[in-house]
Amino acid sequence: xxxxxxxxxxxxxxxxxxxxxxxxxxxxxxxxxxxxxxxxxxxxxxxxxxxxxxxxxxxxxxxxxxxxxxxxxxxxxxxxxxxxxxxxxxxxxxxxxxxxxxxxxxxxxxxxxxxxxxxxxxxxxxxxxxxxxxxxxxxxxxxxxxxxxxxxxxxxxxxxxxxxxxxxxxxxxxxxxxxxxxxxxxxxxxxxxxxxxxxxxxxxxxxxxxxxxxxxxxxxxxxxxxxxxxxxxxxxxxxxxxxxxxxxxxxxxxxxxxxxxxxxxxxxxxxxxxxxxxxxxxxxxxxxxxxxxxxxxxxxx
Length: 301
Prior knowledge:
Elements: H1 11-51, E1 58-63, E2 70-77, E3 80-88, E4 102-105, E5 115-116, H2 118-139, H3 146-168, E6 195-202, E7 205-215, H4 227-234, E8 249-252, E9 255-268, H5 270-296
Antiparallel strand pairs: 1-2, 2-3, 3-4, 3-5, 6-7, 7-9, 8-9
Helix pairs in contact: 1-2, 1-5, 2-3, 3-5
């Protein structure tokens, strides 16, 4: 199907009319984008509120599936874990005498370091930057300059995507457990040197990984397990639990270590899930606005 102008006009006049029509369409779209930016700002402010510290925080349950290996609670206030107590029943971590479990608790001492979830810090930073982009675009820039608006929307889109990726987990800000160990002074009593406590975000859920570690001797690096384990098995002892890091070694706090036992527990955080859903919707809205502006500007077919 095709369209034609009737009565016919000269090609030069037709080209002039087309340019004028496109200019009017671009002017209309720039006006509409002002309203779109305000809607995006409201959505981003809702996301920021979901990640902001609240008076009581969000208390989340941690529980291993079909076992008593790990049970506990943590309280998240914004990007920080302000309270927490985890009870462990691991074959490689004997409990203190007289206790059925090995307990790990977040210290409440005023001078204790804070347990910060770096991914959530990155999400909040990206959201705040996106809000700044909207304010600059609205109040300081030339709202009639299509190239300027296109650049600002691109910048806005980049920040929203960075926030999504950090919250989803596939991001450079997701720290690897052996490279960024938690400060043992965060806990009361301090975390033992042979225990790794790794808390992070994946798919908008809070994940806790506990590992018991053993320093690897140079002559055992390629053996798969240490001499003591082989001796224990030869004497009829129980084999160590199998996990996905059994045959790997890591450099942890300057030493080569292997993971004797590992447990991973996931806790769904309603606020993070809601923030992720809003960021997905905002990302889609900005992508549509970018596409529409590029088409009218002749940058995309």
